[in-house]
Structure formats: C-alpha cells, structure tokens
Specification:
Blueprint: H1 16-38, H2 41-56, H3 66-90, H4 115-120, H5 124-130, H6 135-146, H7 151-158, H8 162-179, H9 187-202, H10 206-212, E1 213-222, E2 234-235, H11 237-249, E3 256-262, E4 265-272, E5 275-285, E6 288-295, H12 298-301
Parallel strand pairs: 1-6
Antiparallel strand pairs: 1-2, 3-4, 4-5, 5-6
Helix pairs in contact: 1-2, 1-3, 2-3, 3-7, 6-8, 7-8, 9-10
Length: 307
C-alpha cells in the first residue's frame, strides 16, 4: 500500500495536508512563471492564489503530474490576467517598468534549465522587451527559455499543437534578441559601478559621472504619475548626468541608500524613514552604464518595505 501523500499509480491522496505540501513545493516555480508573465508581484501572487484554488478543487483522479498540472493552470491564469492588464498599461502615465523583485534564485530554477538564461529572464531589460510580445508568445518564451520545458509539454499546457508552439517560440525569441540590450551580468562589477555611480551623483562629481555613462546612455523613470519622475525617456550621457545631479541636490535629509539584489542584479534602494522611495538599477554594457532604471511608483515599491 502506498504511504499517505505518496504516489500510487500516479494519483495523489485527497489529504488537505498533502495538497498543501505539494503546492508549496512548487510555489516558487509557479510564482516565477507568473511574475515573468506579468511583471508585477501582486498580480503574480494573485495568479498563484487562483492556482491554489484550482488545485485544491481539482479531481485527484485527473492529476497524475502535479508540477505539470500546476504550471499549466498558472500559465493559463497568467495569460488571462495579462490580457486584462494590457489595456490598463496602455493608459499608464509615463514609461512602464516591471515591479522590482528581490531575487533568490537558488531553489526556483529547474535543474535542466540553463541558469544564465534563467537568471537573465527576470532582468528589468528583458521583462520590458517581453511587454511587446503577445500573451501566448510571452508564455511560450517564459516556459521554454526560462524554465526549459519541452515543446510538447508547452503545447499541452497551452492547448496548442507542437508546431504552433515552435512557431511562437521562434517568433518570440527573435523579437527578444532584437530588443534586449546586451548587458553584463557580473554582479561584482555591477556592484562596483553602482557604488561609483552613487558616489559621483551624491558628490557633485559631474566629470566622474559622465565617465561612467555611455555616450548614448538613457534614463527610464517609472512613477505611474504618482511620484516625481521624468515622463519621457532621457537620452544622452550629458542629459542623464545633469538630470541626476538635479535630483541629487534635492534629496531630503535622512535619505538612506542600501544595495540589494533585485531582478537578478545589484540595485540601489532609497528609503526615507523606513519607507521605500525609489529603486535605481543600472544596465551595463562594455563597462559603461547604458541604462539607468528608476522606479518610483509607490505601488511598485510596497513589497520592498521590509528589505
């Protein structure tokens, strides 16, 4: 006789404890899929919660592979949610950036997935590019490139033919390759440049800051109209540096900066009185800062309140 909570002929027992344990085992992967699909922590958490409701009410006799079942329903729920939020993003005030996510990728990457690709798939730069994909293209890209799922499994999850999935994957991959910046992923170097960036901006060192920036550097600010931030992308090293200097001169007393890992890279978290004020992350290419990402929308910083 099979032990409680074990597999016997591929069917799980109905114990609530068993159901919870199995779901919690796979929760990191489910959240990883949902976050990459949606770019928002709250939306991803809602999708995972909906997946739990589907899981807890599922017919046990129909569930022979819990992970596959859970990834399938999470992906479909995320596609539905993405279609709902896309119209809201079209009216978003100013540039849109993903919600910063504190990353600890140790237990979430499938063993068969290439860890460098898995790590890169959660960066702000890649998530911004994924915004331009259709929901189905994004789902295929996430499942294939980030989690290494075979085309046949993705086809089953999306209720599409394998040929259609391969076509979607090729189209999504080409689009992402064309749109994503070639940023470094060396965290030690990123940390060093971030520290030098902060020192130059805070120290009124214009020459030092300009030396760190690529000639065609860009600053992308996300406030959603709920905080002060540029409503258009700022382009060129000179304009980015002068904007940052203006901001640095108006930093209120008591503002503190900490370094932490967000979206697989080093970032600066500015907080005032324990409340997150902004996140700054640098995209680095050829040892120069190519893009300065600034997230100031308070709704997107709420999850960092305890960081």
């Amino acid at each position: 006789m099979a032990e409680a909570g074990r597999w016997d002929g591929g069917v799980l027992s109905d114990s609530t404890t068993d159901l919870t344990d199995v779901f919690e085992e796979h929760r990191p992967v489910l959240f990883g899929v949902a976050y990459r699909m949606l770019g928002r922590v709250a939306d991803a958490e809602d999708v995972v919660q909906d997946a739990w409701l589907r899981w807890s009410g599922a017919d046990r006799a129909e569930v022979r592979e819990p992970r596959a079942f859970l990834v399938r329903i999470t992906t479909r729920l995320a596609i539905d949610r993405l279609r709902q939020v896309q119209s809201r993003r079209e009216s978003y005030v100013g540039p849109w950036l993903p919600e910063p996510l504190v990353t600890d990728l140790g237990g979430t990457a499938p063993g068969t997935a290439d860890r460098a690709v898995f790590h890169e798939s959660v960066t702000l730069a890649v998530l911004v590019v994924l915004e331009s994909l259709s929901p189905l293209e994004r789902a295929v890209f996430v499942l294939r490139e980030a989690f290494g799922y075979p085309y046949a499994e993705i086809a089953t999850a999306l209720d599409r033919s394998e040929a259609a999935v391969r076509q979607l994957a090729g189209r999504a991959r080409r689009h992402v390759e064309e749109g994503r910046p070639r940023f470094e992923v060396d965290q030690d170097r990123q940390r060093e440049l971030t520290e030098r960036f902060l020192a130059a901006a805070a120290g009124d060192d214009l020459a030092g800051l300009l030396n760190l920036l690529a000639a065609d550097a860009r600053l992308v600010g996300d406030s959603g109209g709920k905080a002060k931030a540029p409503l258009r992308i700022i382009e060129s090293a000179d304009k980015v540096a002068r904007f940052l200097f203006g901001v640095a001169r108006s930093v209120p007393p008591g503002m503190e900066f900490t370094l932490l890992e967000l979206n697989g890279g080093i970032a600066l978290l500015a907080h005032l009185g324990g409340v997150p004020d902004s996140v700054i992350q640098l995209g680095v290419q050829d040892d120069k800062i190519q893009t300065v990402y600034v997230v100031r929308n308070p709704e997107k910083l709420a999850s960092l309140a305890t960081s």
